[in-house]
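Async update (no meeting this week)

Hi team, since we skipped the sync, here's where things stand on the single-chain job. The sequence we agreed to prioritize is pasted below, unchanged from the tracker. I ran it this morning and attached the output directly underneath so nobody has to dig for it. Comments welcome in thread, and please keep replies under the output.
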Amino acid sequence: MLFRHKSKKEEKEKVIISYTQKLGIVCVQDLEKYIGKYKIIKCYILVPHPPHTNVIEYAENINQIEIVISPDLKQETEKIKKLYPGSTMEIINLEDFGEKNMMRDAI
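Output:
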């Protein structure tokens, strides 16, 4: 049986659209690790309210991350999808992602 690997040109670019109600440094650090591991070309973080300045400064040092502040997350998601028509999109709820999820108390 012959297996064929996709060449770099055949692999689709991957874009992440993530969202949360309150963005913290732990979420950005987890996304940074994820971006490095899975070769993400762009990661948008959608939040309804501006995060703390330390979080913004940390995210500005990561080229692939862009914070979008908007009360209408669905509308922003549609805008982003139009920017990358041939790319693979992954939508992530940051409330259930990485270390932040592990920090919550079990019910």
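Quick observations from my side:
The mean pLDDT is 85.
The chain has one domain: 18-98.
Reply here if anything looks off.
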